[in-house]
Structures are given as structure tokens and as C-alpha cells.
UniProtKB/TrEMBL annotation:
<comment type="similarity">
    <text>Belongs to the proline oxidase family.</text>
</comment>
<keyword id="KW-0560">Oxidoreductase</keyword>
<keyword id="KW-0285">Flavoprotein</keyword>
<dbReference type="GO" id="GO:0071949">
    <property type="term" value="F:FAD binding"/>
</dbReference>
<protein>
    <recommendedName>
        <fullName>Proline dehydrogenase</fullName>
        <ecNumber>1.5.5.2</ecNumber>
    </recommendedName>
</protein>
<dbReference type="Pfam" id="PF01619">
    <property type="entry name" value="Pro_dh"/>
</dbReference>
<keyword id="KW-0642">Proline metabolism</keyword>
<dbReference type="GO" id="GO:0005739">
    <property type="term" value="C:mitochondrion"/>
</dbReference>
<dbReference type="GO" id="GO:0010133">
    <property type="term" value="P:L-proline catabolic process to L-glutamate"/>
</dbReference>
<dbReference type="InterPro" id="IPR029041">
    <property type="entry name" value="FAD-linked_oxidoreductase-like"/>
</dbReference>
<dbReference type="InterPro" id="IPR002872">
    <property type="entry name" value="Proline_DH_dom"/>
</dbReference>
<dbReference type="GO" id="GO:0004657">
    <property type="term" value="F:proline dehydrogenase activity"/>
</dbReference>
<comment type="function">
    <text>Converts proline to delta-1-pyrroline-5-carboxylate.</text>
</comment>
<feature type="domain" description="Proline dehydrogenase">
    <location>
        <begin position="183"/>
        <end position="467"/>
    </location>
</feature>
<keyword id="KW-0274">FAD</keyword>
<dbReference type="InterPro" id="IPR015659">
    <property type="entry name" value="Proline_oxidase"/>
</dbReference>
<feature type="region of interest" description="Disordered">
    <location>
        <begin position="25"/>
        <end position="49"/>
    </location>
</feature>
């Protein structure tokens, strides 16, 4: 591996931070009013000239691309991305971290934890506490990127777990507020961590049944936007569900209060809140929470509560159109994070087990088209009116297409209603390429104690196997830059 090939003497001599400076020095400028919405903050006029479209994304100049990445970090990242691209390595790592080895009384546990902390955790997570997360974000910010902070917790199954998780999310808003304005673009929340899973399943069943039978009354339902389209799969709910019990209604009341507290904290801090998307079995309830809260909190030009649309779903585009048109009619600015989606295998399996067609597009080409169509629609929408969009993708083609479309519409440096996003530790080339071309780019950064975040990371590693394996483009560019630095230091 590269770490063994390059002698330390040369490593010390290797240069980084060459002439290229961060594209967005203004992001940390004290001149930015701390109370203005983050998506509203603009770089100074000197940086508002748009580049010609063909210069928008440049992956050829690796020196410029990785100019903010120290050589040691570049080496470590390359090694870790290589390791995670090897499926048996991921299998071994997940087996080990789930095995008896991790029992508190096992003497090997400390070694395993220390190794995990120094490698995968360090690469894919912002840190164990607020101070380290703040430092990671400051590092990103220097390189012209921003952070989306996500408190890495798992799904909750009871109210005590939900209350604990809520504290973590509220703390995340405090951490974000304590950092330089605009260095954190969003705080992330998983509704499955603040509302018990069983209740989300029950609510989703009831919402689906109401879609089948509009006369079915849901006394707990507040104002919302359309959650289903005509083609939405309703197969999860085969018979008329019982109404919520008194206990479930009381749990729902608590979940509403938790989400309300978080939304209000984000409103006060003026930091948008992004709601993650999960399995289709619970997604209707998640959309319900998101939309009813968007109706309450999204005002003026910029949404404060954003939902997530998984474009690998066949009904994604229709649902997005219905929700955004309904929001427009109500005068509510809508914000969406567009993703392809992380639960493809489990969705396909569930549909097959129940004897239905998969809700996932039949071909990857259809998924790509859906992502790009939804992205075009949202970009056109925000170019002409209120709203916001986060394009959360590692796909180079989608990045290029969206960058070209944004350029055509005059969005980008002059309009900060759009944000690109990649997972922390992934797709550095795309992140820096987009940022160098003048777009706002965020990294999705889980943080929290290793013991809390590891189960979350393991789940993501399993779900995103394809993505980890497909980091080839990044690895290739990183290797190219490493070779260039070695040559530059030797010659
Ligand atoms: C910032 C950020 C936030 C995210 N938040 C969420 C979230 O809230 N919820 C969520 O579910 N996911 C989320 N994801 C994960 C995301 O959904 C994807 O799993 C991941 O990013 C891969 O998609 P991509 O756009 O990067 O595209 P690519 O790198 O092109 O990857 C495409 C992947 O899609 C799969 N795929 C999709 N449709 C098909 C199909 N029809 N046939 C075959 N393969 C298919 C392939 O296996 C392939 O691995 C997030 C990702 C990011 C970067």
C-alpha cells in the first residue's frame, strides 16, 4: 500500500496547499449577518461571475482539486477507500464489530475500538464530541466546503430512547450555532430516532388506508401535503388497520412535541433542518411529519424544514410534483433533498415476499433519469421562485448535469438556494470539483461517541456497499495526485 512505499523523509517534503486558495473565503466572513438564513448567504461580488459551462467541473487538474488535502490525509483516505471497496474487508469489519469481541469484558475490545476509531471512524465521521466535530467542520470550511451535522443514532423503539435521541439532535443545533456562520448548512434529523418505529409503521398503515379509502377518518391528522401519488405502492397495508389506541395517540403527541421543539430550535438558530428518508414501510409517516411541520415553519423565500425524496422509487417524481404544487398553492416554500436511495435490496425483498412488483425502478438507467429529472424540476422551480434543493449524490454525471443546468438558469454562486452534498469521506473529487466551480457543497457528517455511531455506520456501510465499491474514480484521482506530489518532492 502507498503508506509503505513512500519513505517518511519524502513524505515530510511533500507539498500541499499550493497556490490554489479556497474558492469561498466568504463563507466564514464575519461580515455575514449571523441571523440571515444560511442558504441566503452570498459570497462577495468578486466571486459571483459564472464560469463558462465547460469549465464548471474540472477533474483533470488534480493538484488544484486536492490542494487543501494534506498528503498524510490523502494517503490515509486512499488506503481506507481501497479497503472499503473490497467487499470481504467490509464483511470482516462488520462481523468483527458485531461479534463477542466487542463485549465490554473482552480484552481485545479496546484494541478493536482504537483501530476502528483511528481508521474508519476518523475517515467517515466528524468526531466523538462537539469540539472535534467543530474542528472537522473548520477544516472543511477552509477547503471551501460546509458541513451537515448528523447526530449518529439508531432507530428508537420507546419514548425513553426517543427522548435521549432528541437531546442529541438539540445539542447538534447548539453545536452548529456555536460554529462560524454558514459553516454548517443543515442539521439532519432521523424521524425514526424521535418517534418509536412501531408507531411510524402504524401511522403509515393508517395513511395508506386513507389513500385507499378517503372516507377513512384519522382524527390525529394535521394539515399536510400530498404524501402519495396515484402510482404509490400501498401493498404494505393489506387490511383495514385499527385506529390508534389511546396509548399510541399519547406517544404521537410526544413525538409531535419532540419534533416541534427541534424545529423551533432550528428556527431560532436560523439553521435549516433536513429530514432523512427511510424504508417505504415508514416513509409515509415521515413525510407526514415533514410536511405538516413545513406548513407550520416554512415562510418567505427559504424553507427551514426540508424533506428527502428517494428517486430510486418509481413514484418519486409524481410525489414530488404533487407535494411541491400543493405547497406552492398554499404559499409555502418547499425544500427537498434529492437522493437515489439507500434501501434498494430490502425494498425489493419486501415487495417480492408480499408478491408485489418492486417499488424501485426496473433499471439503474431509470433511477438516474428520475434523479436528473427531479433535479431539473427543482432547479427550475427555485430559479423562478421560493424553495430550496439539496442534490445529495456521488454520481459524477448527475453532478455535471445539475451544474450545467444551474449555470443555464443562473443559479450557483449568485443563488444559494441550492446545495450539493456528499457523505463525509466520500467523493472528495466531486465535492472539490463542484466547489471550485462555484457551487455550495456540503459534507454529510455523522458525529457522536464511537459506541453510539458505530451501529449507524455499520448499517450505512452495508446499505451503501455499491457506493463504497464505486469509489474508483476518487481513488484513481487521489493516486494521481499522490504520484504528482512524490515526483514534485523528488525532482
Ligand atoms: C448527503 C447524502 C444524504 C443521503 N441521505 C439519504 C437518505 O436520507 N435516505 C436514503 O435512502 N439515502 C440517502 N443517501 C444515500 C443515497 O440515497 C445513495 O445510497 C447513495 O448516495 C448512492 O447514490 P448516488 O446518487 O450517490 O449515485 P451512484 O453513485 O450512481 O449510485 C447509484 C446506486 O444506486 C443503486 N441503484 C439505484 N437504483 C437502482 C436500480 N433501479 N437498479 C440498480 N441499482 C440501482 C446502485 O446500486 C448504485 O449503488 C444520502 C446520500 C448522501 C450523499
Amino acid at each position: 500500500m502507498a503508506t509503505r512505499v513512500i519513505p517518511p523523509r519524502i513524505l515530510r517534503k511533500l507539498r500541499y496547499n499550493t497556490a490554489t486558495k479556497p474558492f469561498q473565503p466568504a463563507l466564514t466572513s464575519p461580515a455575514l449577518a449571523p441571523t440571515s438564513n444560511i442558504l441566503d448567504q452570498k459570497p462577495p461580488s468578486s466571486t459571483t461571475t459564472l464560469l463558462p459551462p465547460d469549465a464548471e467541473l474540472n477533474f483533470h487538474d488534480v493538484e488544484k482539486l486536492f490542494s487543501h488535502v494534506p498528503t498524510t490525509k490523502l494517503l490515509k483516505s486512499t488506503a481506507i477507500l481501497h479497503a472499503t471497496a473490497v467487499e470481504p474487508m467490509v464483511d470482516l469489519g462488520t462481523w468483527m464489530l458485531r461479534s463477542d469481541l466487542m463485549q465490554t469484558n473482552n480484552p481485545l475490545r479496546n484494541i478493536a475500538m482504537a483501530t476502528t476509531r483511528a481508521t474508519f471512524f476518523d475517515h467517515f465521521c466528524a468526531g466523538e464530541d462537539a469540539i472535534t466535530a467543530g474542528k472537522s467542520i473548520a477544516g472543511l470550511n477552509e477547503a471551501g466546503l460546509r458541513g451537515m451535522l448528523v447526530y449518529g443514532v439508531e432507530d428508537a423503539h420507546d419514548n425513553a430512547g426517543c427522548d435521549r435521541n432528541l437531546k442529541g439532535f438539540l445539542h447538534t443545533v447548539d453545536v452548529s450555532r456555536s460554529l462560524p456562520p454558514s459553516s454548517v448548512s443543515f442539521v439532519i434529523v432521523k424521524i425514526t430516532a424521535i418517534c418509536p418505529m412501531s408507531l411510524l409503521e402504524r401511522m403509515s398503515d393508517l395513511l395508506r388506508w386513507q389513500k385507499k379509502d378517503p372516507s377513512f377518518v384519522l382524527p390525529w391528522k394535521q394539515d399536510s401535503l400530498p404524501i402519495f401519488s396515484e402510482s404509490s405502492p400501498l401493498y404494505h397495508t393489506r387490511k383495514r388497520p385499527e385506529p390508534l389506541t389511546a396509548e399510541e395517540e399519547s406517544d404521537l403527541d410526544l413525538a409531535n412535541k419532540r419534533f416541534l421543539e427541534l424545529c423551533q430550535k432550528c428556527v431560532q438558530a436560523n439553521i435549516p433542518l433536513l429530514v432523512d428518508a427511510e424504508h417505504t414501510s415508514v416513509q409515509p409517516a415521515i413525510d407526514y411529519f415533514t410536511y405538516s411541520s413545513a406548513i407550520m415553519h416554512n415562510k418567505g423565500e427559504n424553507p427551514i424544514v426540508f424533506g428527502t425524496l428517494q428517486t430510486y422509487l418509481k413514484d418519486a417524481k409524481e410525489r414530488m410534483l404533487l407535494a411541491s404544487k400543493a405547497a406552492e398553492k398554499m404559499g409555502i416554500p418547499m425544500g427537498f433533498k434529492l437522493v437515489r436511495g439507500a434501501y434498494m435490496s430490502s425494498e425489493r425483498k419486501l415487495a417480492a415476499d408480499l408478491g408485489y412488483a418492486s417499488p424501485i425502478h426496473n433499471t439503474i438507467k431509470d433511477t438516474h433519469k428520475c434523479f436528473n429529472d427531479c433535479s431539473n424540476y427543482m432547479l427550475e422551480k427555485i430559479a423562478n421562485g421560493p424553495g430550496g434543493v439539496v442534490l445529495a449524490t456521488h454520481n459524477i454525471e448527475s453532478g455535471k448535469l445539475a451544474a450545467a443546468k444551474a449555470h443555464e438558469l443562473g443559479i450557483g454562486k449568485v443563488n444559494h438556494k441550492m446545495e450539493f452534498a456528499q457523505l463525509y469521506g466520500m467523493s472528495e473529487a466531486l465535492s472539490f470539483g463542484l466547489s471550485n466551480a462555484g457551487f455550495q457543497v456540503s459534507k454529510y457528517m455523522p458525529f457522536g461517541p464511537v459506541e453510539t455511531v458505530m451501529p449507524y455506520l455499520l448499517r450505512r456501510a452495508e446499505e451503501n456497499r455499491g457506493v463504497l465499491a464505486a469509489s474508483g474514480f476518487d481513488r484513481q484521482l487521489m493516486r494521481k495526485e499522490l504520484v504528482r506530489r512524490v515526483k514534485a518532492s523528488v525532482l
